[in-house]
Input
Amino acid sequence: MNKHKKTGVIIAADAAGRYQPFALTLDQRRFSQASMAAKQHLPELAQAVETELSRLLTDVEFSIELSLCQGTGLDSWLAEPGRLLLQCPVLVPTDSYCYMALDYTGVHHLADLSLGGQLSKVVALEEKPELSASELRICSRIAQRQLQAIQHFLFKEQSALPATAVKQQLEPARFQYLPLKVRLLLDAEAISWFVWLPLAFFSAASEESPVSVSAVDMSPWPQVPVQCRVEMARKKVSLQQLQQGLKGEILPIELHSDMSFMLNNRTLFSGKVAEDANGLVFQITDIATKETLA
Output
């Protein structure tokens, strides 16, 4: 009877929430770093947005609540009818775009608060398939002003330009933008929308610099096995050389000075291969970046 050695432990579903996810790729690590930084400032950012919007929504008592979005359902939510996606150019901390999305009911309610202070009844989508110019202008101003409040809190500068509607309503690139849910809380109602901020808002690391994995606590994780590949050499050969090799002739190759450590056909690290008493060993010397992969 063959005995198979256990290579890992499966985490029970009820216990999975207690473990810290490990961001494996460089994009995921940047996203995780930005998420942790943003979470520390959510109360202050909510207060800054509330103060700024109170200058637009006068004579209305409300509070603002901010939370990080979890999961991957925003793309399907945006694809549903009755959604408005706004794009707002920003110049600080880098030239980029921010996004704001809300449903038509939220658009109508924000327009009501801006123009009259009272919420009207919800209009069915089939009764009003398009938004008015006034509603679009109000949402554009709210998008711009809340982004300026966030910029002023984080960078002491304001450089958000007027927002415009986006026809192709696709979720901004995942792991490049941090999605936040904004809730404007009234006495008996709540108006919600989503905001996508570039990771540069919360990550001091530049696009070129790698993110260290040493800050991630992996001690609670079991030893989950993954199949990796170390590429030691790559060589182009002609058909004649291949035929000669099949006849037993030697095909010379030259080993890479820096060898690639690959997972799922993606290079994660570079390093050195050396001989050990029991065979070959691989030592990571650098984390792969876009420049090193070019």
About this structure: The chain has a mean pLDDT of 82. The chain has two domains: 20-201, 228-293. Residues 228-293 form a domain with the Surface presentation of antigens (SPOA) fold (CATH 2.30.330.10).
